[in-house]
Amino acid sequence: MRRGVDPVPTASGRLLDFASDQVVAYLLMSALSAATPITNRMRSAVINRFTDTTAAAISMAFLAFVSLALSAIVSGYKLSKQTYM
Length: 85
Known about the structure:
There is one protein chain. The chain is mainly α and 85 residues long. Helix content is 80%, strand content 0%.
């Protein structure tokens, strides 16, 4: 980056960006879906600060998933509009 040259070419960079957005979004959604039933079960037994913070963390993870999904849509659009020749 010091010489003004990108370490990854533009075409490969767009593909890498799209793929990494997809992978991170799916991993985030998987963690979210694993944590939700456990938190609901814990909240049915006792409501304390821990269960409140886990519920808040789940909602923030869902918002992060939405932003990553939008990023993947933008990356996919850039990838589809790329010229190869």
